Structure formats: C-alpha cells, structure tokens
Amino acid sequence: MMLSMRFWRTVRQYALLFIVGALGALFLSGPPASARVPKGLPPICGGPLPSGPITSGPRIDMTALPHDDLGWPELILRVRSRGERFCYRYAYDGTTYHRAPIMVVHPGDRFAVRVVNELTGPASGARMAASAVPPCKPRPMPNVMPRPFVGYFDHTIEARAMKLSDTDVNMHFHGFVGPASEENIFLSTLSTPARACEYDITVPRTQPPGTYFYHPHAHGAAEDEVAGGLSGMWIVEPATTELPVRDEHAIVLRYRIPFLANWNYVPSELPLVRAAAAHEATLAPHTPVAFDPFDPPPWPSAVPMRGHGIYVARCGSRPDGRLAVDGVDAPGELSVPAGEPQLLRVLNATSDSIVYMRVRAHGRDRSFKIVGRDGTPVGGDDAAPLARFIAARQATLVPAARVDILLTLKAGQKVTLYTHRHCNAPSDAVARTQPLLVVRASAPLAHPTVVATRPLTAAQSPAAKLVAYVRAHPQLVRKRAFTYTEYVLPKAHGRGAHGAYYLTETSRPGFHETPFWPTYAKGAMTPDPTVVVRRGTIEEWYLFNTTLETHSFHIHQMNFVAVNVPGGPMTLDTVEVPFGRLLPNLKSRDYPLIAPSVTRVILDFRHVRRGTFVFHCHMLFHEDRGMMGVIKVV
Ligand SMILES: [Cu+2]
Question: Are 399 and 352 in contact (CB under 8 A)?
C-alpha cells in the first residue's frame, strides 16, 4: 500500500481518505530517501527510464561463475544506492553491471552469493577471500521496553516503535525450500566489520522448476530497498528444457523511479491521526473477551472516520505507484516470432502494490495460459513444467508473486499485458489500469518449437487434491487462526503518533499482539519462535484481516495451498488477504466496525525441513513495522 503515500501532495482535498495510509509516512518513514545518498561513491543505479523494447540484466548460470577460495562458484554483489534507487553492482564475464542479474540454477546446484553493503561507503567485504569473510550474526534489536495498549478484543497490544534503518541489507531467496540456515534473513551485513554476508546455497533436488524472487529482508529496511529496485529474479530450470532460452522472457515489474511526488504530508490529516492515538490511549484494559477465533465478530476501526459515508463512498482517490518493466518505462515492448510458444515469467517486484494482470487483444480481454504460479508448475509435473496449463482471464499478483504464462501469437497479432484498475481498500490507493507489456508477432521461424501442453481445471490440480485429502481426514489437520490488526498509537520512543501492524495467532488462548521483535537465546543464530509446529503434520490456517486495507501472507521455506481464492485452490507462496468489510457502529459513529475477511491456507509440513523461519505480510511497509511471526518446525 504505502508507496502511494508519496503521492498525497496532489490530492489534499481527499484528506479523510488517506488517514491509514498517512500514518506510516507521517511518523515512521524517517528522512526522505534523497537525504541518504552515500558520500564518496559515483552516482550509479541508473537514471530516467527509456521506453521501448524490454531488456534485463545478464542471465547467469550460477554454476559457471568463477570459483572462490573454498571451491564454489561465487557471485559478489555490492549494494549501493542513489537517492531513492538501490542496485547491485557486480562484475560478470568481464563487464561491470548495475542491473540485477537473473540467476539461473538447477536442482542440486551449489553456489555462493556474497552481499557487500556499500550503502554508506566502500566496504572491505568485497575484497576478501570467501574463507575470510567473517560470519554474519543476528542484528541486535534496539532495547525498547514494550508499552501495553488495548488490542484485539481487549487482549494486550505491545507497542514498540521500530526505528527504521536503510543502511542494513541481507538476501532472501524467496521460494527457496532448502534449510532455513542457508538463506538466514536474521543475519545482517551490519553485524560484521567487513559489512558482508556470504550465502552458501545448495538448491534442493525437490525445488520445483519455475520463477523465483530474491530481495533484501533486513528488518526495517526491506521496503525502501525493494521499492528502490534492489531485487531480482532467480529461475530453476527443469532437467530437460521444453523451450529454447530465446523464448523465455523475464518480466520484472518494478516502480517507476523517481516517484511522482515526495514525502510531504497533508497537514489537515494530523488532527485525525492524533485523535486516533489519543482515543487508543483512553481505552481501559478489560479482561480479554472470549470469542470464537474461527468466527470472530466485527472489530472497531482504529482510525476515526468522521462522516464515514464519505470514507466508503469512493475508493482510491489517490493513485498507487506507477510501474516499470525492469529497465524500461511501461509498457515495455517485446517482439516474438509468430507461431512460436513464448514463456513470460512475470514477477511483481514492487514492495507494496498488487497487480491484477490481464491480457488484451483486439480491444478485448482474452483468456491466457498459466503454466506456473510462485515457482510451482500448475500441473505439478517437475519434469515437464509446461505440460499443463490453467486458462485464466486474470492473475492476481501480490508483491513477490510470480505467474508463468505460455503465449503463442498468430502472424500480425499484438497483445497487451496490463494491470486492471482495482481498489486496494477503502482507506487506500487505487491502482489505475496501466499497460505493462506490448507483445507483437514478427515473422514465423522456419522450424517452430512444439510444446505439448494440455488444459487442466483448477479442480484437477494438485492443490485441489490436497484440499480434498484434508477434507476427507479432518482429524489429521490442526486449525489455527491468525489475525491481521492495525492500531494508531500515541507518541513514544522518540516517535510521534504512529501506525502499528500486527500478525497474531489468535487461536492461542490468552494471546497478546506483539510486533516482530526477535529475541535470541544466548549464542543462538535464530530467534525464539512464536509458533511451533511438528514436521510431518498438516495445518489449516485461517487468516483474518480486521483492517480496511489489503494484506498478504507469505511463509519462507515452503509453499501452501490457498483454499478460497478466485480461480480455485492454488499452490502459492504469497497470497492476497483482502480487506475487511465496513459496517456502521451504532455505539460510536467515529469508529465504524470492520467485519474481518478470511483467507484459508493449508500448510503441508510433511516434507518441510526442520528449522526456524518467518511468515509475514509481504506488503513490505507492514512487514518492516512488525507484521511478521517466527515459526519453528521441530
Ligand atoms: Cu500488510
């Protein structure tokens, strides 16, 4: 959501609509990005975007890289920034690049990636032998005492306003199913004198072929870095390729930078934010109310909505961030041979914006073939990921989501991929219709490639089979409820009134809401868990959204089956958790009720490795501010 806050200056007349979005930018965002240009480094990370044909960073076979002194192929990425832009600088094949590489791997590959943090100046980690890079350690969290407030159904909220830092960085291989220790996001480049982390990655043989995402995941820094372009695509190729590389295209959707406006806020919003914080401070703690965690009642909004008729009347009077396709302004252009199947790997690499992707030809939306979602072939055949497709007219891509589309154009045909207009939430931005990619057919090849692909219905998919199995064996499945909540809290810890974001297991008796605030046992490299599950079990999680903005659910090291999403059950690693429904509150006109939405996901822990990892909202504004939990599989 929150990228859109950078646009408010143009929309003051709708101040009432902005309040929830305003909270973070007003009080938590820190100095404007332009104030953080590091000294002593050349201006890099690109300039204004050209338009025209799409391009991408080099496609790197990770096993073909030069070997480090430990004997593993290694890629050294130096992280830099320029104003709002962030980028990786690296040498490959004799050339220095600033465009994020496409990392191509196969199941079983082993390689190393070194992340060197040069955000505040040159770091020594780039010049060391791999064996000399000191191990990264957990970044200590600030010593802030929690303050109690009244939370969800009178359970306690812990307030701890995170001070955000854009100078930390690490790397998360989103979708990676290997051991949590290999992509440990709890570790930090700031924790070593060399300001570098070395990631030693072995791609599991069970890693499905498909399209994946890598991005920084340092707590409090992730949103600005990802929004600024610091991320990329990694691809797991199947053992036998069905299409030549020339027919594969990386469509990495990012924000257009610089953003259209700046961080200035609308002064008329301040009284409402202060009123919300003051209201929260007056609420007296009660004995927690008993309620059915799987059928929760409506919950009062944390934000006052005087005249909330206005509030619900019109969604999105301010725009969401405009998109670019990696190196070019949208719509990018792509020319492909007629009659030759093309694999479009579409990645939503934004920090906070949802893409409702559609395909248009001759002025009409048309059905398109989805062969993979979030790195998983829809047919479940890892040996032939293109063998089955599901026909769709829209693909919802929350931040970090991927969709693999198989597209074949007729001679002379032109199709446009675009994101359809949608309302993020009553209190949030509207994403306008925006063309993303124009694909045109050029002359056919003399010997076109043939891909044998057959339709599959959602009901026939592996996802639907898991749902059927779970419904047939309910005694095997543990249910848990998790609830997304937001509050407006008074000033404290050196911060003004601010938005606070929580993801809490509300099926746990006597729960209280705490932001992600990792604590470590002495010498431990991973924090204490908030949820413990047993390997070999299956769980169904009910995700309740009690807020008026869209959230999402992502879990590391595994995927899940989203049960009740448009298009039928599907295997994903990141899913939309839609906003709740606004109801009048007869007791308090200023604080309307919100009927929570519910999104159900089935997590199959039968094949997941033991370890400690995280689950969180992938709207990175929220994640950076605490909407995350720690899970341990034992
Ligand atoms: Cu969220």
Answer: yes
Closest-CA residue to 541 (of 604, 591, 590):
604
CATH 2.60.40.420 at 280-291+462-633, yes or no: yes
**pLDDT tens by residue, 47-85:** 778 889 998 889 999 999 999 999 999 999 999 998 889
What digits encode the pLDDT tens for the residues 162-184? 666 778 999 999 999 999 888 88
What is the CA(428)–ligand 1 centre distance, in A? Answer: 12
The residue ranges of every structural domain in the chain are: 29-243, 280-291+462-633
- What separation in Å is there between the alpha carbon of 625 and the centre of ligand 1? 10
Specify the pLDDT at position 293: 96
3-state class percentages of the chain: helix first, strand second, coil last, to nearest 5:
15, 35, 45
One fold for 29-243 and 280-291+462-633: yes
Taking alpha carbons only, the member of 16, 12, 7, 3 closest to residue 426 is 16
- Residues 161, 28: contact at Cβ < 8 Å? yes
Query: Ligand 1 centroid vs 75 CA: distance in angstroms?
Result: 32
Average pLDDT over residues 436-459: 94
What tens digit of pLDDT does each residue of 135-166 get? 888 887 877 778 889 999 989 998 887 666 77
Cα 530 to ligand 1 centre (Å): 18
Reduced 3-state DSSP string for 214-236? EECCCCCCHHHHHHCCCCEEEEE
Cα of 571 from ligand 1 centre, angstroms: 20
Give the DSSP per-residue string, 582-596: EE--SS-TTS-EEEP
Kindly tell me if the per-residue pLDDT of 20 is higher than 80.
no
Nearest to 577 by CA among 539, 631, 622, 531: 622
Residue 238 CA, ligand 1 centroid: distance in Å = 33
> What is the CA(216)–ligand 1 centre distance, in A?
17
Residue at token pair 């307030």:
159
Q: How far apart are CA 514 and CA 323, in angstroms?
A: 34
**Using one digit for the tens of pLDDT, what is the confidence trace for 558-575?**
999 999 999 889 999 999
Q: What is the pLDDT of residue 239?
A: 86
427 pLDDT higher than 70: no
* Centre of ligand 1 from the C-alpha of residue 297, in Å: 20
Mean pLDDT (whole number) for 457-473 = 95
- Identify the weakest region by mean pLDDT among 71-75, 319-323, 359-363, 465-469: 319-323
Quote the CA–CA distance of 140 and 48 in Å, as a whole number: 37
Please say if the pLDDT value at position 450 is more than 80.
yes
Gap between the Cα atoms of 250 and 587, Å rounded: 52
From 342, 270, 350, select the one nearest 574 (Cα to Cα): 350
Q: Specify whether the backbone of 562 is left (phi greater than 0), alpha (psi in -120 to 50) or beta.
A: beta
- Distance between CA atoms of 426 and 397, rounded to whole angstroms? 20
Q: How far apart are the CA of 623 and the centre of ligand 1, in A?
A: 7
Instruction: Tally helices (H) and strands (E) across the chain.
Output: 6, 46
Rounded to a whole number, what is the distance in angstroms from the first to the last CA of the chain? 35
| pTM for the structure as a whole | 0.91
Side-chain-side CA neighbours of residue 550 (13 Å): 26
**618: CA distance to ligand 1 center in Å?**
6
How far away, in angstroms, is 421 Cα from ligand 1 center? 20
The CATH class of the 29-243 domain is mainly beta
